[in-house]
Please model this.
Amino acid sequence: MSTATKSYAAPSATAPLAPLTIERRTPTEADVEIEILYCGVCHSDLHQARNEWGNSVFPVVPGHEIVGRVTSVGSGVTRFKVGDMAAVGCMVDSCRTCPNCKQGLEQYCDNNMTQTYNDDDRKYGGRTYGGYSERIVVDENYTLKIPSNLEAAAVAPLLCAGITTYSPLRHWKVTKGQKVGIVGLGGLGHMGLKFAHAFGAKVVLFTTSPGKAEDAKRLGADEVVLSKDAEAMQKHARSFDFILDCVSADHDINAYINLLKVDGTLTLVGAPEKPLAIGAFGLLMGRRSFAGSGIGGIAETQEMLDFCGEHNIVSDIEMIDIHQINDAYDRLLKSDVKYRFVIDMASLKK
Ligand code: NAP
Ligand code: ZN
Ligand code: ZN
Model:
């Protein structure tokens, strides 16, 4: 049994997103059915809609920053009831038994997490379809609670941009007294700024967009550096404890490795299409680390949402109608984002 559900999908890597009717399963006993109110637009949606990572199976219904209202619950569901607000991020399932799943690192499941869209549905077969749609049906164990004091539309981006920056900043123990760099002021970067600032670090934002400098300071940067200005970059040589690279496209990573102190770490969360070239000596001469980080586990995502509730942190958003999604993608490619597009899903009914 299933329910016909309106969505917006990429039919191929080159065609614009367009309406598509998909099927959602009738909730099983473990499931929560959510009417989607808002869905954030992540650059990963664009990478996959255009098959830039080479893993897309079309049609792709993107969207993994989902906030909505519960419309139905299965008989075994205990944490949600009809009418509650609920959220879904980048994954909807994992094996639940491997060592990583058991310690709350479901995103690194040895048997692969089931991603919210553009993935094989490990339990029900077929493909997963994301949040650019009227409703979604998800196991309650992969469904999040959102703090009631926060504006729901501005919470949506926390489900990916939020957790993807919160998790590495926590893992590498960013704290007061440290100097931290955030590279790229887009959806991830602006949340990275907010969290690094909230954790007490001195935060420097690196950007290619001179027009974003004032906003960066409002969002939590103590200093803004134009990455194309070699002299300004040089002033920060060998001074950073930690740098979080949130850039979606090809760029010179060595320029940032050289800004790390001895034993400093540069962590990549951006996922550009092409491999990055890394010079050996930048790492050797300073015992520096180059690392990566993928989203965050379910418990940590809930921890991040609760932290945001306590500290009144949300995303800075520009609300769009679903019909504007192709224009929003074009603007993302021009770094013209302030600082996350969120789709008002009521527009799907228009
Ligand atoms: P976004 O909103 O489009 O922001 C990307 C920012 O990168 C731009 O605003 C721009 O900032 C900078 N940038 C773009 N092109 C650049 C270039 N050629 N050289 C230097 N800087 C450039 O993207 P997002 O949604 O934050 O996602 C960022 C990346 O993270 C994407 O690749 C996405 O797929 C990836 N991602 C990874 C994870 C994970 O689990 N690790 C999760 C979500 C997303 P300035 O204007 O400030 O220069
Ligand atoms: Zn994302
Ligand atoms: Zn697992």
User: Anything to note?
Assistant: The pocket of NAP (ligand 1) is lined by residues 42-44, 47, 160-161, 164, 184-189, 207-209, 212, 246-249, 251, 269-272, 293-295, 332, 335, 337 (CB under 6 Å). The longest strand covers residues 31-40.
